[in-house]
From TrEMBL:
Protein purpose: Catalyzes the reduction of dTDP-6-deoxy-L-lyxo-4-hexulose to yield dTDP-L-rhamnose.
Cofactor, free-text remark: Binds 1 Mg(2+) ion per monomer.
Family according to the record: Belongs to the dTDP-4-dehydrorhamnose reductase family.
GO terms, molecular function: dTDP-4-dehydrorhamnose reductase activity
Cofactor: Mg(2+)
Protein known as: dTDP-4-dehydrorhamnose reductase
Enzyme class: oxidoreductase
Keywords: NADP, Oxidoreductase
InterPro entries membership: dTDP_dehydrorham_reduct, NAD(P)-bd_dom_sf, RmlD-like-bd
PANTHER family found in the cross-reference section: DTDP-4-DEHYDRORHAMNOSE REDUCTASE, METHIONINE ADENOSYLTRANSFERASE 2 SUBUNIT BETA
Length: 282
């Protein structure tokens, strides 16, 4: 059994549809209690663990950095140490926000990091803790995740686009939107791969293709959803937020395809599926 932590989150919800996956939520694993999380893993003894739980409120993390560190760094390290002690694989999902976003080249997994905000710093510390635990693991960085549930850009745009005829959206931050379903499938496949071949331990990237700006993403959301809302491209400076965000979120995902046979998913197809799922539930 593969245990996916973060039950109510967008990635875990999609992982829950996969055979032999169990989900753990806050009731049994509160990441504010790293030792309790480790003890729970020792008690459950799964075959592998995927950590899809995180403090993901990027702006709120600026004023809650201590909690973000506990949840995004201390708890993943404690869980990774428990897994290392049991000799089982641990997959930690991480983020493009560990990078500083300079230049316009896609980042390789071994490129220099330099987070611009508290969320990114806490996730980077989580990566370091998982590596230090020393067990078979994969750190899988992704970006701009969207699914039919939870807080994400697609749901924000559907909400705003229903009321507005024009929306200003930043056009100078570029990245790969990633369907939660594809990310869930990739994370579980990687956990299974690690069981057979722990030698693939390391840091990898997995993001949807093609790279696009938030404005371009918003345009495609409105087009596919049939919403008559015009997107006005604006610079980041015209949309001030508490947390600074990277301009270049492009991730080079080549090594993930080579090591695990997982190509970048086309986010436009994933968006069609998500809009259909949302339509069914409204
Ligand atoms: N969303 C995105 O755009 C991106 C996400 N990622 C990473 O991908 C992973 C999955 O993200 P995603 O599915 O979008 O996340 P969500 O924000 O949808 O879900 C986060 C999950 O973490 C849980 N959680 C938060 N704090 C705690 C806690 N103290 N104890 C237990 N559970 C907690 C939440 O539970 P509850 O509902 O109870 O709060 C929720 O289940 C995360 O590691 C994230 O950092 C990386 C790049 C982009
Ligand atoms: C709502 C809105 C946002 N924006 C901009 C602000 C921001 O630069 C960009 C995205 O805003 P959001 O707050 O939805 O996205 P944000 O929470 O920054 O998304 C990030 O979440 C974390 C968890 C990650 O790990 C990242 O990969 C990334 O997905 O869109 C506009 O330009 N216009 C708007 O009307």
């Amino acid at each position: 059994m593969i245990l996916v932590v973060g039950q109510s989150g967008q990635v875990a919800q999609e992982a829950g549809r996969i055979d032999s996956v169990s989900l753990a939520g806050r009731a049994t694993m509160d990441l504010n209690d790293p030792d309790g999380c480790a003890a729970h893993l020792h008690a459950v003894r799964p075959d592998a663990v995927v950590n899809a739980a995180a403090f993901t409120a990027v702006d709120r993390a600026e004023d809650a950095e201590a909690e973000a560190y506990r949840v995004n760094a201390e708890a993943p390290e404690a869980m990774a140490r428990a897994c290392a002690a049991m000799g089982i694989p641990f997959v930690q999902i991480s983020t493009d926000y560990v990078f500083d976003g300079s230049g316009d080249a896609p980042r390789q997994p071994d490129a220099a990091t330099g987070p611009l905000n508290a969320y990114g710093r806490s996730k980077l510390a989580g990566e370091e803790g998982v590596r230090a635990a020393g067990g078979p693991h994969v750190i899988l960085r992704t970006s701009w995740v969207f699914g039919p549930t939870g807080a994400n850009f697609v749901r924000s745009m559907l909400r705003l686009g229903a009321d507005r005829r024009v929306l200003g959206v930043v056009d100078d931050q570029i990245g790969g939107p990633t369907p939660a379903r594809d990310l869930a499938a990739a994370s579980v496949a990687i956990a299974r791969h690690l069981l057979l071949d722990p030698g693939t331990t390391g840091t990898y990237h997995f993001a949807g293709t093609p790279d696009v700006s938030w404005a371009g993403f918003a345009r495609e959301i409105f087009a596919q959803a049939g919403l008559e809302c015009r997107v006005d491209p604006i610079p980041t400076t015209a949309f001030p937020t508490p947390a600074k965000r990277p301009l270049n979120s492009r991730l080079d995902c080549t090594s993930t395809e080579t090591a695990f046979g997982l190509p970048r998913p086309d986010w436009r197809a994933g968006l069609r599926t998500v809009l259909a799922q949302i339509g069914e539930t409204t």
